[in-house]
């Protein structure tokens, strides 16, 4: 599991006065503060903040009356949750078997080289983030890339750099 | 709602399906949607209006039609013509030529290669060779309309169970049908139900495992997106049979469309009294809650999935006790896969004998496969158990593109194995695939041609298992890492025969001593490629050569430096 246990110092926090916190509380109340709804609440929180800031995790732990260690444990166990801010634009390369057979690695390499990124990282200005997905279930359209939540079917490794630049406006 | 209400609902649905209004169906499965199906739908509606055909013909979104790489797909229901690769202009042309002037647009008909198009899609081998039970409604009905599901005998099986069968009889019927779990392991579904039924408790649960984690598999996704009510009905019947009043549908977070359609379906079912406190006015109580997964392959394992529903890290625990005895919050819990639940209503409606007559003696019924990789017709298919791989790949799948040679078929994802050409005539069922060192798995079927390196493929799956290992038990956590390291060495041209021997020593350890299915099956891709493609491993080791030309091997000089 790619965990981020020693990165607490890098985690950016949302101020406690942030009105988005109220929205998280709303979700917690919707689930009647049931501890088993932790994952669903973290989904909501990540939807609101774009990632899971440390003080949001603490807030969720306090409101659900669950040990902070358990909340941190869950947040770092699942691939979906990120403790770091994602890019303003996010590119996800599917590396499922069908995409792998059709050259997903070349696509990933092309974007990584074009933007000087590693999968899971973001450009220093925070404009563009690159991720790889295990399988997005679009195997009929392999190889697939998701740019800002919009799926791009049958992507060509030679043209993907231009495509990312065109769709996101971030030059490589 | 009672029987009369259900019949009225079905009548309303029949009016939509076969009524006076003609239907132009656009595939609204996730694949077609991401290729622009919404635009096709809007353009078709606009063209129908402009042509003055508007009230007589209407556009309807339906579930997956199967031929995913040819999308967006559009079907003119009245004469069964399916059009491929639609866009706004092409769909306007279909409206003008086909619907107004009754002349099919031959160029755009499905699988129109070398002028061999079929005016009726069901005449194409792709459809003609399939037997649809699980997918019988997929691509036909609008998944967002409960009336259309009711028109296809929807919820009638639930009504039959509640009004004329005892729970024991329902279980007996499922046992007799010979239905085996479609998640991969193939455990008899009826026996599982019986075990949960026998355990007495104040609360029991029925869980649907929709955490389709195998890369290269999208069967469950298509069923959930295309026919969500079928799953709800199957779960409610299961709840009645085993005595559970609460169900959880665990769906991958990667499937937002499936989640949306399920939410709509649950709302509709509650509104019509098909879920809730007094289902079909029979006094039976059952309700379903959706739980969204957060991206962990191991959560497909049942005890890990239970932990995840409880809001914890998705780590498995030793069994026994099995979930049937002590599952969610320590209560007896039934867990079945999406495809297993999809088979329940048809079995109750048509009888166990009808079902067991399909397929083979030990593997009854059909199996849905997701065809992908180096194959012409990628997409979703359903065939009777016992169909040969050759028929699936070459007759239905249309063979290998680019004039290349078939090399291997991969079943079962990271837990499965590769089947070489010599075994193409194997009939697909649980036992035959096990005998070949692979597994049925959930139904992902990836085809590889001669340009795929089997050593690299083994490394790919090992990397997957290494990343997805939850880390709880050592054989899996360390074993997958060590095996990945050795496989990488071989791929890079730095492997030795001693490394290969070490791999062969490690693999059985990992298989035999891991806590759950993930580690127990992680060596399968490695072992099956070694079994059938040992020469490729030897070429990498002895000749520093990749026969498929896929690996970038370091030369002998690099090797000397390493030493």
What this model shows, in words?
- The complex is a heterodimer of chains A (172) and B (563).
- Chain A has 172 residues and is of the alpha+beta class.
- Helix content of chain A is 41%, strand content 10%.
- Chain A has helices at 20-30, 38-49, 54-64, 68-77, 97-101, 104-115, 160-168; strands spanning 89-94, 128-133, 145-147, 150-152.
- Chain A has a four-stranded mixed beta sheet with strand order 2-1-3-4, with helices on one face.
- In chain A, a hairpin with a 2-residue loop joins strand 3 and strand 4 (150-152).
- In chain A, helix 3 (54-64) packs across helix 4 (68-77).
- Chain B is an alpha/beta fold and 563 residues long.
- A five-stranded mixed beta sheet of chain B has the order 7-8-6-5-9. A five-stranded mixed beta sheet of chain B has the order 11-10-14-12-13.
- Chains A and B meet through helix 2, helix 4 and helix 5 of A and helix 2, strand 10, strand 14 and helix 18 of B.
Biggest beta sheet attributes of chain B: 5 strands, mixed
Give helix and strand order of chain A, one letter per element, not per position: HHHHEHHEEEH
Query: Would you identify the CATH architecture of the largest domain in chain A?
Result: 3-Layer(aba) Sandwich
The coarse overall form of chain A would be elongated
- Spatial shape of chain B: globular
Which structural class do you get from the secondary structure elements of chain A? alpha+beta
CATH topology call of the largest domain in chain B: Rossmann fold
Largest interface by Cβ-Cβ < 8 Å: A-B, 41 and 55 residues
**Which CATH class of the largest domain in chain B?**
Alpha Beta
State the end-to-end distance of chain B. Answer: 77 Å
């Amino acid at each position: 599991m790619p965990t981020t246990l020693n990165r607490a110092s890098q985690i950016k926090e949302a101020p406690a006065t942030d009105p988005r916190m109220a929205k998280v509380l709303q979700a917690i109340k919707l689930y009647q503060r049931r501890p088993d709804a932790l994952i669903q609440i973290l989904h909501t929180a990540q939807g609101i903040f774009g990632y899971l800031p440390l003080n949001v995790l603490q807030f969720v732990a306090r409101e659900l009356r669950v040990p902070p260690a358990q909340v941190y444990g869950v947040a770092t166990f699942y691939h979906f949750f990120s403790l770091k801010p994602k890019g303003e634009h996010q590119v996800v390369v599917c590396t499922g078997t069908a995409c792998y057979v059709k050259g997903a690695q070349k696509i990933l390499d092309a974007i990584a080289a074009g933007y000087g990124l590693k999968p899971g990282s973001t450009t220093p200005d925070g404009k563009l983030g690159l991720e790889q997905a295990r399988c997005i279930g679009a195997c009929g359209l392999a190889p697939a890339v998701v740019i800002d939540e919009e799926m791009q079917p049958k992507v060509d490794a030679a043209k993907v750099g231009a495509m990312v630049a065109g769709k996101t406006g971030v030059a490589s | 709602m009672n029987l009369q209400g259900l019949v009225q609902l079905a009548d309303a649905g029949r009016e939509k399906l076969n009524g006076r209004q003609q239907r132009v169906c656009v595939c609204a499965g996730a694949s077609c949607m991401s290729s622009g199906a919404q635009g096709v739908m809007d353009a078709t509606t606009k063209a129908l209006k402009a042509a003055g055909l508007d009230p007589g013909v209407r556009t309807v979104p339906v579930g997956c039609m199967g031929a995913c790489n040819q999308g967006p797909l559009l079907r003119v229901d009245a004469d069964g013509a399916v059009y491929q690769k639609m866009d706004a202009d092409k769909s306007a042309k279909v409206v003008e030529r086909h619907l107004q002037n009754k002349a099919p647009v031959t160029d755009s008909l499905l699988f129109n290669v070398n002028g061999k198009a079929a005016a009726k899609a069901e005449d194409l081998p792709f459809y003609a060779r399939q037997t649809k039970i699980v997918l019988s409604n997929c691509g036909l009905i609008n998944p967002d309309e409960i009336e259309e599901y009711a028109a296809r005998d929807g919820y009638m099986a639930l009504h039959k169970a509640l009004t004329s069968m005892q729970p024991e009889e329902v279980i007996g019927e499922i046992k007799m049908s010979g239905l085996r779990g479609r998640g991969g392991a193939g455990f008899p579904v009826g026996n599982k139900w019986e075990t949960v039924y026998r355990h007495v408790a104040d609360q029991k649960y029925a869980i649907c495992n929709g955490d389709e984690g195998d890369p290269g598999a999208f069967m469950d996704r298509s069923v959930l997106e295309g026919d969500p009510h079928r799953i709800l009905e199957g779960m409610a019947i299961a709840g009645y049979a085993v005595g559970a009043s609460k169900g959880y549908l665990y769906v991958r977070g990667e499937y937002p469309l499936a989640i949306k359609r399920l939410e709509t379906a649950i709302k509709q079912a509650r509104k019509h009294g098909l879920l809730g406190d007094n289902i079909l006015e029979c006094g039976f109580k059952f309700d379903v809650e959706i739980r969204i997964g957060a991206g962990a392959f191991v959560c497909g394992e049942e005890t890990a999935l239970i932990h995840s529903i409880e809001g914890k890290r998705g780590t498995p625990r030793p069994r026994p006790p099995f979930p049937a005895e002590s599952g969610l919050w320590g209560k007896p819990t039934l867990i079945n896969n999406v495809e297993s639940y999809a088979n329940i209503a048809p079995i109750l409606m048509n009888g166990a004998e009808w079902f067991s007559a399909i397929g083979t003696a030990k593997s009854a019924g059909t199996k849905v496969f997701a065809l992908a990789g180096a194959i012409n017709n990628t997409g979703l298919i359903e065939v009777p158990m016992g169909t040969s791989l050759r028929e699936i790949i070459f007759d239905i799948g249309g063979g290998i593109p680019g004039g290349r040679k078939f090399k291997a078929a991969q079943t079962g994802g990271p837990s499965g194995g590769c089947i070489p050409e010599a075994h193409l005539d194997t009939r697909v069922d649980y036992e035959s695939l096990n005998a070949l060192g692979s597994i049925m798995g959930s139904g992902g079927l990836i085809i590889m041609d001669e340009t795929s390196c089997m050593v690299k493929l083994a490394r790919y799956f090992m990397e997957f298992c290494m990343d997805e290992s939850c880390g709880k038990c050592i054989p899996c956590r360390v074993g997958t890492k060590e095996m990945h390291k050795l496989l990488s060495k071989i791929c890079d041209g730095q492997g030795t025969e001693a490394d290969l021997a070490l791999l062969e020593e490690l693999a059985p350890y990992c298989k035999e001593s891991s806590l759950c299915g993930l580690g127990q099956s992680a060596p399968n891709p490695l072992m099956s490629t070694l079994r059938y493609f040992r020469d490729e491993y030897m070429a990498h080791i002895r000749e520093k050569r990749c026969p498929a030309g896929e690996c970038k091997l370091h030369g002998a000089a690099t090797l000397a430096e390493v030493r």
